């Protein structure tokens, strides 16, 4: 197991380079966006559109490629899947592009309540074509172990697109300029990647291969749409049920909370190829259980430590006085992101056994709970209603996916200990929010109490046995020496 954990940690650390570079640039540029973009809600709405568009065009074929990359009989079959996955996704996105070109004005009025942005959806759709190509090609690079190629081009397209967008935005193009930059940057990187990977394609349209990809990926579409609901609709709901001021605060909080991906995204990038590559091993379930517990503990403690210093960091990052209270809402949003990544570990058996419909069913139930909860709580509790329901919904996903996974692929997750730990953790985090809201003196006393109680719970419940920590200590120095 030590060797496998070392490989997962090593791959995650390598992927973290790209995540850190991308987020560092995002950190530097956000003050520029808030200064030059007169309406952040338009930006957020268009991002929500491109996210759901990507899901509808890809239809889970990227997840299917992660499975068939390791399940293919030979190199030619693998490359045939690769070509057909890209061709299928791009063809659908081109169709959407044609539709938004001719229907841009009514769609713009529907989404933005203005005809000022009637070309925005078309430009955003064209940019998404490049993003889809990049997503598929870089996914293939991940599965084939080309980590540094992945890092280089991930940073190239994110950082390059943002820098080009800055030029347009500061020259008065507004939100349109932001997506002009994405269109140019993502198209250039997509063209370069297609050239570099030209020998990896088997240029043969295959109904059988496309059918395999869709059969595996399509059941995940409700999962993706539910995820989109949980991540994207909170802002417009807060806007309509609360106020524009709260919607803008929510937007700022979401952007700051997204920095948790510095922990979750590298793991997520490494996890899928890692889990699929060891699925036939006898000790795979034991490894999956350890990974779930480590990710939960490391992720939650990181969020707690961040919350101790979030107020000054947030105000340094978001300087506008009308968004000053947004730091209070960062931790539940970040925790929701962590839970979303955890579901891929708790549901690893469902992915291995091709029972992806059960994951989708869990997300659909959670999204219904989320919708009902948000509509009931936002009118009375504002932003707290929305962010609290985000955490609750993802926790429901974890519980439901865990239960379904255990029926087809039992894994010793120590789930009871996890739930006790999470209960103590959430009580402590609510207390931290209360202290910060009322600006009590000597906050650090409560902070120290909360962290000690949380860590003690880890060992009292035996969530992380002492001997496991010893194994990790043996792994980490080797990783450092190897670097």
From TrEMBL:
Domain of life: Bacteria
KW Transmembrane helix (keyword) present: yes
One Pfam family linked to the record: Polysacc_synt_3
Membrane topology: Multi-pass membrane protein
Any one of the GO CC terms: plasma membrane
Compartments where located: Cell membrane
InterPro entries, alphabetized: Poly_Biosynth_Transport
UniProt keywords, alphabetically: Cell membrane, Membrane, Transmembrane, Transmembrane helix
Regions that span the bilayer: 12-34, 46-69, 81-102, 122-141, 148-173, 179-197, 218-240, 252-271, 291-310, 330-352, 359-377, 383-401, 413-432, 444-464
Designated name of the protein: Polysaccharide biosynthesis C-terminal domain-containing protein
Organism whose genome encodes this protein: Polycladospora coralii
């Amino acid at each position: 197991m030590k060797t496998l954990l070392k490989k997962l940690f090593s791959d995650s650390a390598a992927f973290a380079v790209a995540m850190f570079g991308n987020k560092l640039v995002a950190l530097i540029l956000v003050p520029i966006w808030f200064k030059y973009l007169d309406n952040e809600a338009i930006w957020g709405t268009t991002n929500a559109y491109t996210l759901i568009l990507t899901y509808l065009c890809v239809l889970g074929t990227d997840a299917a490629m992660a499975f068939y990359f390791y399940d293919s009989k030979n190199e030619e079959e693998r490359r045939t899947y690769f070509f057909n996955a890209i061709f299928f996704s791009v063809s659908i996105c081109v169709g959407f592009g044609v539709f938004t070109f001719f229907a841009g004005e009514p769609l713009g009025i529907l989404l933005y309540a203005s005809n000022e942005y009637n070309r925005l959806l078309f430009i955003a759709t064209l940019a998404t074509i490049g993003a889809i190509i990049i997503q598929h090609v870089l996914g293939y690079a991940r599965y084939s172990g080309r980590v540094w190629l992945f890092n280089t081009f991930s940073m190239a397209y994110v950082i390059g697109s943002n820098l080009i967008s800055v030029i347009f935005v500061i020259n008065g193009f507004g939100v349109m300029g932001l997506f002009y930059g994405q269109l140019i940057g993502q198209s250039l990187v997509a063209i370069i990647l297609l050239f570099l990977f030209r020998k990896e394609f088997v240029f043969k349209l295959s109904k059988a291969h496309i059918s395999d990809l869709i059969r595996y990926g399509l059941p995940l579409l409700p999962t993706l749409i539910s995820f989109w609901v949980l991540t994207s609709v909170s802002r417009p709901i807060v806007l309509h049920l609360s106020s524009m001021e709260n919607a803008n605060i929510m937007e700022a909080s979401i952007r700051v909370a997204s920095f948790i991906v510095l922990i979750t995204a590298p793991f997520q990038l490494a996890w899928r190829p890692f889990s699929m590559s060891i699925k036939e091993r006898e000790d795979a379930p034991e490894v999956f259980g350890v990974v779930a517990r480590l990710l939960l503990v490391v992720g939650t403690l990181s969020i707690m430590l961040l919350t101790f210093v979030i107020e000054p960091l947030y105000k340094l990052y978001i300087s506008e006085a009308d968004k000053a209270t947004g730091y209070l809402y960062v931790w539940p949003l970040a925790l929701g992101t962590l839970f979303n990544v955890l579901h891929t570990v708790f549901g690893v058996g469902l992915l291995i056994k091709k029972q992806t419909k059960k994951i989708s069913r869990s997300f659909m139930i959670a999204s219904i709970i989320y919708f009902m909860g948000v509509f009931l709580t936002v009118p009375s509790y504002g932003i707290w209603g929305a962010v609290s329901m985000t955490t609750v919904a993802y926790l429901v996903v974890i519980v439901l996916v865990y239960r379904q996974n255990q029926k087809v692929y039992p894994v010793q997750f120590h789930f009871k200990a996890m739930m006790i730990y999470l209960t103590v953790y959430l009580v402590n985090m609510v207390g931290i929010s209360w202290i910060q809201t009322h600006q009590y003196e000597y906050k650090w006393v409560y902070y120290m109490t909360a962290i000690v109680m949380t860590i003690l719970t880890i060992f009292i419940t035996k969530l992380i046995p002492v001997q496991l920590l010893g194994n990790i200590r043996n792994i980490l120095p080797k990783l450092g020496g190897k670097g």
